[in-house]
TrEMBL record:
Transmembrane segments: none annotated. This is NAD-dependent dehydratase. The lineage of its organism: Bacteria, Pseudomonadati, Pseudomonadota, Alphaproteobacteria, Hyphomicrobiales. Pfam families: Epimerase. Residues 6-214 form the NAD-dependent epimerase/dehydratase domain.
Length: 309
């Protein structure tokens, strides 16, 4: 493994530094494709590349590369963006890189897709990995189109479909939940018992490491999540345990909370966290993946006060 070089795109994002650390620890030699200079670990190479919305010549970046981990793309930014931009960046640019990788003799291409490629649901029954994909928005459609394009290439590819990722620096809804957990007040969410799939950023990074190994069968997609779903009530309890506090939760009926969220115009936000979206990583687990982080412990670490320097 020490002789295997991996080209990584998207290393400057939320997940990227964790992936870099995991792959370095596993003994891979890394070459990071960056849009702007940034500090990197000792021994890690860097190459500069342009905007994914324009064609890129990947030949030099792929020289001597054994594997590619492609995480760069246009994030899920809501309904305001033109679908053509999602297709250009998340679909066409991915396939341009994959074709160049195939031509360069790359052995494995790991693509960071999204659970949104499988379903746009935020609530409902558990998602089956082999169910017909039904993406609900432009982002999900662009990710699914990239997976379908990879399937047409003569290349060992793996598409990873993560659920909601949490970890240091998390934003949006999980950041809001963390702020709630830190409030020195009882919270009315003890009745939110529906299971929800989450993904610790450490587990996301380790899934990418695993996807590069022969143990992970190629040419298929995988849901990626922490193995056990967790309710909002248990999320808050875990976060408050990291703060050294009791859960402090009051069991208000979920139907009441959902009604209040609807009246406030926040029902979609409410469902994104409280909805019972479950996508278990059955395929990865059957292949032998052993995620290193346990959900409650990871949430407690996320909330724990930091003592830097």
């Amino acid at each position: 493994m020490a002789s295997e070089r991996v080209l990584v795109t998207g290393a400057s994002g939320f997940v990227g530094p964790h992936v870099v650390a995991a792959l370095v620890q596993a003994g891979y030699r890394l070459r990071l494709a960056l849009r702007r200079p940034q500090p990197v670990p000792a021994g890690v190479e860097t190459v500069m590349f342009g905007d994914l919305s324009s064609p890129i010549d990947w030949q030099a970046a792929l020289a001597g590369v054994d594997h590619v981990v492609h995480m760069a793309g246009l994030a899920h930014a809501g309904p305001g963006l033109d679908e053509a931009l999602y297709i250009r960046i998340n679909t066409q640019a991915t396939l341009d890189l994959a074709r160049a990788a195939a031509a360069a003799g790359v052995r494995r291409f790991v693509y960071l897709s999204s659970i949104k490629a499988l379903s746009g649901a935020v609530d409902g029954p558990p998602l089956a990995e082999d169910a017909p994909p039904m993406p609900g928005d432009a982002y999900g459609r662009s990710k699914l189109a990239a997976e379908q394009g990879l399937a047409a290439l003569d290349l060992e590819w793996v598409a990873l479909r993560p659920v909601l990722i949490y970890g240091p620096g998390v934003k949006a809804n999980m950041a809001a939940l963390l702020r709630l957990a830190r409030l020195p007040l009882p919270l009315p969410f003890g009745g939110l018992a529906a299971g929800r799939s989450l993904l610790a950023v450490e587990n996301m990074a380790d899934a990418i490491r695993f996807a590069l190994t022969p143990a992970c069968p190629p040419r298929r997609s995988y849901a990626v999540s922490d193995p056990a779903p967790i309710s909002v009530a248990d999320m808050l309890a875990a976060m408050r345990s990291g703060l050294g506090r009791s859960p402090g939760l009051v069991a208000i009926p979920e139907a009441w909370l959902r009604r209040l969220a609807r009246l406030a115009g926040r029902e979609e936000t409410f469902l994104k966290l409280a909805g019972s979206l479950v996508a278990r990583p059955e395929r990865l687990l059957r292949a032998g993946w052993q995620p290193p982080a346990e959900t409650r412990a990871a949430l407690a670490r996320l909330a724990a006060p930091r003592h830097d320097g």
